[in-house]
Amino acid sequence: MHRRPVLVSIALALLVPFICVTFLVAQSRVAVRQRTAALEQIAHLKVDQTSDWLEERQGDAKTLFSSKGLIPFVQRFLDSPHNTEAAAYVRERMEVLRTSYPHGFSAVMLLEANGRVLLSSGANVGLSAVTQALVREAAVGRKVTHSDLYDAGEGVQQMDWAVPLIPLGDGSALPIGVMVMRAEAQRVLYPVLTTWPESSASGETVLLRRDGDAVLYLKNPRFLGEEKPNLRLPLATPGLLSAQAATRGGAGSSQGVDYRNQQVLGAWREVPGTGWVVLAKVDRDEVLRPVWATLGWIAGSGLVGVLAVGVALNALLAHQQQLKDLEVLAEKGRTEPLLAALGNNLPNGFIYQYVVPLEGPGHVTYISAGVEQTLGLKPAEVMADLGCLLSRMTPESLARWREAQARATRERRIYQDVLQFEGVGGRLLWLQVQSRPRLLPGGSMAFDGSALDVTESKRLQSQLADHRRQLEQQVKERTEALEVALERVRCSEARYAQAVDATRDGLWDWNIDTGEAFVSPGYSRMLGYEPDELGTSAKALLFDRLHPDDK
């Protein structure tokens, strides 16, 4: 009779780790799959935004190329550089072209076909070798051309569009000049890539391309800032996610390490026609952190449940007949008093029924007496005015509850969350809230649920996290101290070896137990031998070298 509770308790105790492992494996896969899908969407979005920006700038250049009103004034200005009216008109058009597009150009320049600057608008008007070659290409090819992103110095990366100005009415004539339009990536392109569409402590989008046997980060990574512009990493770096993206191109997703050697998930997509690759990534630890947190709660709750079941199982078995009587009462429609009794005696929590009508706000139709012990509210007060209960939630928890409850009502699914309340005496409590939807006659939705106090569990989780951080800091400090000590020993041994090698004296050391000896290079050279030529035997090194009269 007494063996059954023991066996059941043992079975439940063994079931807890099995459930935890199963949950961890399954939920980790789900979390990775869901976040990877989100990263793929982000990469797709950023590529679309980048392509749109490039197409808009190319469209600006082609519009200028087709413009018929600007060419006569440029020709007039070139024929007579002192023609202030023509110069003013051309300069005004250049200024309009530069300032009319919020994500457009930082500088516009009018050049002769040989590359000499005639007029300019904007501050960044320097001519690099890239720009000069681009001007010559546009002039010879008589078509709009543009450069790739290039480093202009001081951490500035930019692109140039060169537009040849062809005289009107003469399709075969050489260009009378070239208009160069310049866009700084840090000002107009990189901010678009940096914007992250969801809250994430480690999420970032990087722009990169393959450069020989290395991957070149065109945009400085988020966690390096401006410290290392134009970061280059070898393609052969083991597990480097950006190397996979730069090598494979196209679109894909994978796991690996980033430039910090941090384990990450990522998805990439190639920007058409550029050789650039947009990589959206996030730390793997951030993805799995909610899974581990839930696992800790499950394990703790499971162990507590096993203990509770073990203690209560004997009493439950002793009252089997009483339970059968309660089942008979339930069949006769007398379950409500029993439900109230159970709810009123629920330790550290309460049960409730929340009804959402087809129209109008939801309201509580039943709540057990445990709400008074937990939150200091009388059941009648809560059933009369739901606001008195909601006012005890913290603003963040209240906003999350409204959104999740509305979604659970629409989708008719279980609602569960851990919410923070202000309890008796102003003490902050964490309540594990869970409810199951049930459709009522007439179309209203009833949520039968429970709220359990898990404040102590949350506190223990916080303490464990603090303790882990302290241990990690101690390990780091001791490791650094050992590295410093080892470096000092290495330096001392190096200085000693240099001193022994440099001296002309013959030094020797004889291990009597093993018969081995060590001699300095000076000792061997004094006897006419090369270092290590005599071996390590004390007999060969010392005694065989003595003069017979000295033995």
Give the tags.
551 residues; alpha+beta
Provide a short characterization of the protein structure.
This protein has 551 residues and is α+β, with helices and mostly antiparallel strands. The chain is 49% helix and 21% strand. The longest helix has 64 residues.
Shape: flat
Please give the number of β-strands: 19
Radius of gyration: 39 Å
Helix content: 40-55%
Mean pLDDT over the residues: 84
Report how far the terminal alpha carbons are from each other.
94 Å
| Biggest pleated-sheet summary | 6 strands, antiparallel
Percent of residues in β-strands: 15-25%
SSE arrangement:
Layout (H helix, E strand, L loop, with lengths): L2 H64 L3 H10 L4 H16 L7 E5 L5 E5 L7 H13 L3 E2 L3 E2 L5 E9 L11 E8 H4 L1 H5 L9 E8 L2 E4 L14 E3 L6 H8 L2 E7 L5 E8 L6 E7 H35 L1 H12 L3 H10 L4 E8 L6 E5 L2 H6 L3 H6 L2 H4 L4 H17 L3 E8 L5 E12 L5 E9 L1 H48 L5 E4 L4 E4 L1 H6 L11 H4 L10
Antiparallel strand pairs: 1-2, 1-6, 3-5, 4-5, 5-6, 7-8, 7-12, 8-9, 10-11, 11-12, 13-14, 13-17, 15-16, 16-17, 18-19
Helix pairs in contact: 1-8, 2-3
Textual characterization of the structure:
- With 551 residues, the chain is of the alpha+beta class.
- The strands form four sheets. Strands 1, 2, 3, 4, 5 and 6 form a six-stranded antiparallel beta sheet that branches. It has a six-stranded antiparallel beta sheet with strand order 9-8-7-12-11-10.
- β13 and β14 form a beta hairpin.
- About 2% of the residues have low confidence.
